[in-house]
Amino acid sequence: MPAGVFPRAAVGLLAGAAGGLLLTWLRVPAGTLVGAVLGSAAAGNAVNAQPHPLQRRVRTAGLVLIGCVSAARLDGESLKTLGLVALPVLTGVVLLLALNAALARWLMKRHQLDPVTAVLACAPGGLSELSVLAVDEGADVGTVTVIHLLRVLLVVLVALPGLVLLLSRLP
Amino acid sequence: MTGAGAAPGLVMLLGLACAGAALGRLLRLPMWPITGSILGAATAPLLGLGGVAPPGWWSTAGQLLVGAGVGSMVGRNFFASVRRVSLPGTVVVLAIITVGAGIGVTLAVTGVLTPTTALLGSVPGGVGEMVAATAGLGGDSGLVAGMHLIRLVVVLSALPWLLRWARLRQGEGE
After folding, report:
1. N or C: which end of chain A has fewer CB within 10 A?
2. pLDDT tens digit string along B155-166?
3. CB A94 within 8 A of CB B94
4. CA distances from A130 to A157, A168, B16, B27, B149 (A)
5. Chain B closest CA to A47's CA: distance in Å?
């Protein structure tokens, strides 16, 4: 590995942390993740950062931490109810996966995206997980990340306030 | 459980998540860092650690690490991609949100779940925001988190098959 690869990779990662903290402080929706991606991408391009094992280790540590936080939200009572409604919930997820396939086919045919990028861009998964998967699978990471950023922003800024307004008016 | 007394529980929770991730890697689970850690940490209630709540900065730290790691790999095409895929991306996103909301309405209308839980658990958005909104509306936030976890684990497990299918379709088309 040529000299200077580690410091450049570290600069990109630190700039990502700074960007994430800045957008969190500014209370931008999903700002932590968005700011970290933007900060790291901008600084990485500026210093011409090259791939380094440190970047993969940092992503893995972050995913384990997110998995831990997500699972801790479940308590015994919720797990019991979840068991009762698992079948209809799973049916809904299967429907979303079918939509995933149809939309990916549309992106491949109409917009000439490669199959891996198209499938990952339309997958109804999490932004963090799919961005990491895009890196691992050799997809166009920019395209996958941009479409999932759009999804999170539209849900948080448009769909969620609409749903909260609607649900708070229900008897 | 919060404060200094919660520290041993938190260490155990993190240990379970790491053990789950390590096992997931061994078993070649798709996206083992997240699927493995979720399954590992989900065993906490079975070990009497059900009330352990990680501090808020754990989530922030996780997102910073993932975001910085991903951002460092996106390359020069990232900012060009923003312009290029904004329009088709919006179509894709609107379709996903509409179908997700439709599934939520179906679950509510058929009486499977309350409207709040059904809708906020079915729209594929940011899990943290959906869970927080559910808590604010007096719904079952744990259940909503569970619904999003099911979606995440099932989608990540199904993606290798979907990717294989897409590659085959493209191979047939060429």
Report:
1. C
2. 988 999 999 998
3. no
4. 21, 32, 23, 20, 14
5. 11
**B173 touches A112 (CB < 8 A):** no
Residue pair A121/B164 in contact (Cβ under 8 Å)? The answer is no
Best CA proximity match to A17, nearest among A27, A29, A25: A25
For residue A115, pLDDT over 60 is answered with yes
B161 touches chain A (CB under 8 A): no
Please state, in angstroms and rounded to a whole number, the distance separating the CA atoms of residues B10 and B21.
Answer: 16
Amino acid letter, A70: S
Which ranges of A26-75 would DSSP assign to H, the alpha helix? 31-47, 53-72
Domain range summary for chain A, segments of one domain joined by + = 1-73, 75-171
CA distance linking residue B17 with residue B39, whole number of Å: 7
Among residues A121, A52, A120, A73, which one has the least CA distance to residue B68?
A52
Name residues 76-115 of chain A within 8 A of B (Cβ). Answer: 76-79, 81-82, 85-86, 88-90, 92-97, 99-101, 103-105, 107-108, 110-111, 114-115
| pLDDT tier for residue B94 given thresholds of 50, 70 and 90 | very high
Q: Which residues of A touch B36 (CB under 8 A)?
A: 67
Which amino acid does the sequence have at B158?
A
Residue closest to B14 by CA, chosen among A56, A71, A130 = A71
**Given B69, B90, B158, which is nearest A55 (Cβ)?**
B69
Chain A contacts in chain B segment 47-86 (CB below 8 A): 50-54, 58-82, 84-86
ipTM over 0.85: no
The residue behind tokens 């993740």 is A33
Task: Measure the CA–CA gap between B149 and A160, rounded to whole angstroms.
Answer: 18
Which region holds residue A125: left if phi is over 0, alpha if psi is between -120 and 50, else beta? Answer: beta
- In this structure, the number of other CB atoms found within 10 A of the CB of residue A82 comes to 21
